[in-house]
UniProtKB/TrEMBL annotation:
The lineage of its organism: Bacteria, Pseudomonadati, Pseudomonadota, Betaproteobacteria, Burkholderiales. This is Regulatory protein, RpfE type. It comes from the Bacteria. InterPro entries: Regulatory_RpfE. It comes from Massilia aurea.
Length: 342
């Protein structure tokens, strides 16, 4: 019997939309998992935090951050098969910064498709600039690069999902090295402005890549430190998050095999719709998850194949953590409800 922890980013609707969305949802298995729980904890997020609730929860659970920090760069590097040569490393997320009426915002990276060949061409240009000032740049995947900057300590940055559609003024990196970072970012942006990749993207009416977003600092562990692969599987998550675990899935088709051993499962297909406030699509994805995820999990709990199921559901504003098991599911007097999502 396994203990499964399911992390479901953006499964909590924003409070102003929650009553209408809950009425429209058709997810009876999720309702049973939530209402027949043996325990529940809800936390709210402070304003202007530098990471989203599910990101800080995962970082803390994996031993990669404390006090709201998400120090995942080195662990993600190793997940991509890259070995840090010591020092202080950051994740670099290439993306698209756009001008709103009164401020700058960064687009959701999920809505800025970037092919591997195009990413590598932009990476090569950025790497030359970085290395000219003594900063190594390494390639993980199309949207996940790694920058070494040993002298950038006390550097406060925010995760890409945190700053999506927000005023970037509130999230621009702070700390003593911020000036050096902004100088490097400006140089990269100028080099990319006339880059053939961006010229081709404009022709195809795709958003140009003009953001060199640095975050997620992590320092290489001292020599002799034992490193372990985390029992974590993921589907539909950013590359950096998938790299933190031992399995990255294309779909939930193999869910039954994952339920045989203790592990954390991160399922991320709600993120894009929630970030765009496209609640119609969000409801559709919830309906699909009812069939592919919630119903199979409920069956596994009732049958005793999963002895303990912890649900970690989040929004931009907070996080709900509940626990259920076979005994809790026998509490027939508790009517199925989705009120916990409010």
């Amino acid at each position: 019997m396994a203990h499964i922890t399911l992390v479901l980013p953006f499964a909590l609707p924003l409070p102003e939309f929650a009553p209408d969305l809950i009425r429209a949802m058709n997810t009876p298995a999720l309702a049973l998992l939530l209402s027949r729980a043996s325990g529940a904890t809800r936390t709210r997020t402070a304003e202007h935090t530098h990471a989203l609730p599910h990101e800080t929860w995962l970082a803390r659970a994996l031993g990669l951050g404390a006090a709201g920090r998400v120090d995942v760069a080195v662990a993600a590097m190793r997940g991509f098969g890259l070995e840090p040569e010591g020092g202080n490393w950051y994740i670099v997320s290439p993306g698209h910064i756009q001008i709103a009426r009164t401020h700058l915002t960064m687009a959701d990276t999920r809505q800025v498709p970037l092919a591997d060949d195009d990413s590598r061409a932009l990476f090569a240009t950025a790497a030359e600039l970085c290395e000219s000032i003594g900063h190594a740049l390494r390639y993980g995947d199309a949207q996940t690069w790694f920058l070494r900057a040993d002298d950038w300590t006390g550097f406060e940055t925010a995760t890409p999902d945190t700053v999506v559609n927000m005023d970037l003024t509130d999230f621009m990196p702070k700390g003593q090295p911020a000036l050096a970072y902004r100088r490097l970012q400006n140089e990269v942006q100028m080099a990319w402005h006339a880059h053939p990749v961006n010229a081709a993207r404009e022709t195809r009416r795709l958003p140009i890549v003009n953001a060199f977003w640095v975050w997620g600092a992590g320092r290489t562990a001292p020599a002799g430190t034992q490193l372990q692969t985390q029992p974590l599987a993921s589907v539909a998550v950013p590359g950096w998050l998938g790299a933190l675990g031992d399995q990255r899935l294309d779909s939930l088709g193999g869910l039954a095999d994952l339920l045989s051993t203790d592990r954390t499962l991160v399922v991320g297909p709600l993120a894009e719709a929630a970030q765009a406030a496209d609640w119609g699509v969000w409801l559709q994805v919830m309906g699909q998850l009812e069939e592919t995820l919630f119903a199979p999990l409920l069956a596994a709990v009732k049958a005793g194949r999963v002895s303990k199921l912890t649900l970690v559901l989040s929004s931009r504003e907070g996080l709900l953590e509940t626990t259920t098991g076979a005994l809790a599911q026998r509490k027939f007097w508790r009517s199925p409800t989705l009120d916990a999502l409010k």
